[in-house]
What does this fold into?
Amino acid sequence: VFTAASEDASAEQVAQGIEAAIEERFGFGSLITIRTRDELAAVIEADPFKGIADREKAYHVFFLGEAVSGEGLAEIDAERFMPEQFALRGRELYVWTPDGIGTSALARALTEKRIGTRATARNWRTVKTLLEMADAE
It folds into this structure.
């Protein structure tokens, strides 16, 4: 959680600046995905599994590098993975894996190639904590 040095900088510009700083400091590249405080609040508000996902460690949000059509996700036979579920909302992919993501067949099927862009996942508790931290800024 951070405050940008300039309010005029776009999220993309800030991400590029952080990527460059990581490259310069550590000698390797890292793709950065940014969400504003209001975008995080919208992610929580849009929760498609409210009342279903009852274990925060087993409920993840994949933050996507860009909006996708969902075409690759349409290839997934969702019934095959039940009770695991996923839902695409804007630049976020919500993934409910009741038995945990580590052994999830659905999570293994959700490759960046199939999603259509890079992604980084955080569990529900972390998403809520990030919003709390942003609100404290």
